[in-house]
Write a structure and sequence with these properties.
The protein is of the alpha/beta class and 312 residues long. The protein contains twelve helices and eight strands. Strands 3-2-4-1-5-6-7-8 form an eight-stranded mixed beta sheet, sandwiched between helices. The longest helix has 18 residues, at 208-225. The structure holds guanosine-5'-triphosphate and magnesium ion (MG). Guanosine-5'-triphosphate (GTP) is lined by residues 118, 120-126, 148, 151, 154, 203, 264-265, 267, 290-293, 297. Magnesium ion binds at residues 124-125, 148, 154, 200.
Length: 312
């Protein structure tokens, strides 16, 4: 079975257009017409990277890598330089394990359990709706669990997504124990022969400590029903606030093992450079990116397509 691979190149290009202006077009302007690429121009490029949400460490790393590759390079024309920058950025994009050919290992694990975590407002629930739609469109039997029992109207929001995607949902009253929702969802999935389970979680509880303890408990409870689950734990990050991603990943990693990242809200932002920083700094691969609020606006993250869209 070939699972969904959602890469809409035109949509990706359109989403990254402001980021392209900010990074690639400015670098092109800097080097165009220059007789030789000297350290002054490299400093200017670094400055452009620094002001493009790529962060200090990653910008420095890019320039150092570009310098290294320039040493053995005879062709120092504009196109050649841009290709080097593109290659260096591509290498950073795959350094955390992100791969073009990623497919969730659904065929070998049934039910395949996905836990979705992240701070409030990053796009967890929306991502779950989009994921459910993708799995369902691939012909799979999907159920989602409304594990955010804290926020007002969280159930209703997830229910709307379940309806849109045409999938089942397990929910309980606001204030119920989230791990009991997770337990029931996974159990229903086992009994009902479901292929995929996706569990939503709260982005905020009374304290951060509570949230982390709650996630640990959800994890344990899921394992009581399906021993090696969750098979994926996706940390959702808001692409428009990419700078904090590293800190968020560290914090959540201390409660549950994260297997992959989802970066949302890349549409219309000039902050797509955050993806480069996240990939360079995180040990977890980026699996999906959000490029809009609609159900079809989740793409499989492909480092190759991403650099192509950025440099096209
Ligand atoms: N433009 C855009 N908006 C998005 C994307 N993903 C999510 N959003 C919007 O971000 C807002 C928050 O999304 P939610 O899915 O409710 O976020 P959440 O993480 O579940 O939030 P809490 O449940 O409060 O923790 C909503 O208005 C979404 O429509 C995206 O890829 N692009
Ligand atoms: Mg939510």
């Amino acid at each position: 079975m070939k699972l969904f691979k959602n890469v809409n190149f035109d949509k990706l290009k359109e989403s990254l257009s402001k980021t392209r202006d900010k990074i690639v077009n400015r670098i092109t302007e800097t080097i165009s017409g220059k007789v030789k690429i000297d350290s002054e121009i490299l400093d200017e490029i670094e400055e452009i990277l620094l002001t493009s949400d790529i962060g200090f460490d990653t910008s420095y790393q890019i320039i150092e890598d570009v310098k290294k590759r320039l040493t053995g390079e005879k062709d120092r024309g504009e196109a050649a330089i841009m290709n080097i920058v593109k290659d260096v950025i591509y290498d950073l994009l795959i350094s955390g394990g992100s791969r073009d050919e990623y497919q969730p290992a659904i065929e070998t694990k049934k039910p395949f359990v996905i836990l979705v975590i992240g701070i409030n407002g990053v796009g967890k629930t929306t991502t779950i709706g989009k994921l459910a739609h993708n799995f369902k469109s691939s012909g799979l039997k999907v159920i989602i669990g409304a594990g955010d029992t804290f926020r007002v109207a969280a159930n209703e929001q997830l229910e709307v997504w379940a309806q849109r995607a045409g999938v089942e949902i397990v929910k309980k009253d606001k204030g119920s124990d989230p791990s009991s929702v997770a337990y029931e969802t996974v159990q229903t999935a086992v009994k009902g022969n479901y292929d995929v389970v996706i569990i939503d979680t709260a982005g905020r509880l009374h304290t951060k400590h509570n949230l982390m303890e709650e996630l640990k408990k959800i994890n344990r409870v899921i394992q009581k029903v399906v021993p090696n689950a969750p098979h994926e734990t996706f940390l959702v990050l808001d692409g428009a606030t990419g700078q904090n991603a590293v800190a968020q990943a560290q914090e959540f990693s201390s409660s549950v093992p994260i297997t992959g990242l989802v970066i949302t809200k890349l549409d219309g932002t000039a902050k797509g450079g955050a993806v480069i920083q996240i990939c360079a700094k995180q040990k977890q691969p980026v699996r999906f990116i959000g490029v809009g609020e609609d159900i079809q606006d989740l793409q499989t993250f492909s480092p190759r397509e991403f650099v192509n869209a950025l440099f096209d």
